[in-house]
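So, who can interpret the following?
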Amino acid sequence: MKVAIVHRVQRGEADNLVELRELCKTAGYEVVYQLKQERPPHPRYNIGPGKLEELKKAVRELGIEKVIFENDLKPVQEYNLAKALKVPIITRTQLILEIFSLHASSIEAKLQIKLAELKYELSRAKEKVRLAKRGEQPGFHGLGAYEADVYYDEIHRRMVSITKKLEHIKKHMDLIRVSRKEYGLPLISLAGYTNAGKSTLFNALTREEVKVSPQLFTTLTPTTRIARMNRKPVFISDTVGFIKNLPTLLIEAFYATLREIALSDLILLVADISEPLDKLRERIETSLQILYNIGAHNVPTILVLNKIDLTGVEEAKKRAEELDLGLPYVLTSAKMGWGLRSLQETVSGMLKGFIRIEGKLPYNGETMSMLNEIYQCSKVNEVTFDERFIKLDVEAPIRLAEKIRRCAADGSFKILS
């Protein structure tokens, strides 16, 4: 579908048409025209009447079927634009909702997106119905048959129903989280601006095959696996990508998903080092602000400056020094496997909850069963077997270390570090 993109900016404000074009591409649209205007918002159209005429001509001559605004629009502005242009009008928020809907694979993600769509519609419902009664326009079809209060109540009823379903899913996810905690392993979350290479890094660290795509927002449902950081076992989770001005209603709808990041023991904040420096800085700052908004600002964070295969190592080092964001950082190319050992060592050094212990376990059914858990859930430095005991030198989670202490032969258990 051919579309036009529009961004009205205040004097001296930079436009966001490049990112909007990227979002359109992800949604499957072909951008054939773009328009920028520097002015205060016009009460009827958001853009001025002169620019509206330019847009009208482009719609007619280029066969444009939809117009997408970077700006939020009031219902009356959307109605007036649809009436003037004779095509549907949507905003950046609605475009992002479309993209999320395209990539939602789990029941939870689909419900979260539907809830966000309904919240967006609820805030505009009564006015849209009143406007539709003047005469239906693209994007307002069918609404004139409703009474405003009836339409509002119907949306609210559907929201309540979806919220109950999401609460049920949340309880199930809480049980999974409790089950993971029983292992005593730290949780590491991959976060960062969309398309920075999080899923590629996740695959490299876990040797899994999560879908990797150049499109935006291909990861909506967190994927959690066990990986090893410098031989220490951890849970690692790939989460939804961030974006500038991520709509509040999406943050609210995906709060349970994003909350997983705030409950992490460590965050790997992934950024694309090949971006222009000002854009890179803005995207990192946007990501840090979202982490703050979801309550994850106190979680230890490592900045992973990814895609150094596109810049070269020396240029990447120079850019990292110029950024000077006060965060520990590691340079990587998840695609090529560069810098992963350095990342694992940095992560290992920041992980808390492991203690190095030494001890001797007697041969019996309980300790032989425990040995499997020790190999799975700890960093094994040395295990030796003699006639009477299994001798251990491991770095284990506190819960497992306590279990080993209870089973160890008298006087053999020692905490090394």
Q: What stands out?
A: Confidence is low (pLDDT under 50) at residues 213-217. The chain has four domains: 2-101, 104-172, 185-350, 354-415. Residues 354-415 form a domain with the Alpha-Beta Plaits fold (CATH 3.30.70). The chain is about 45% helix and 20% strand.
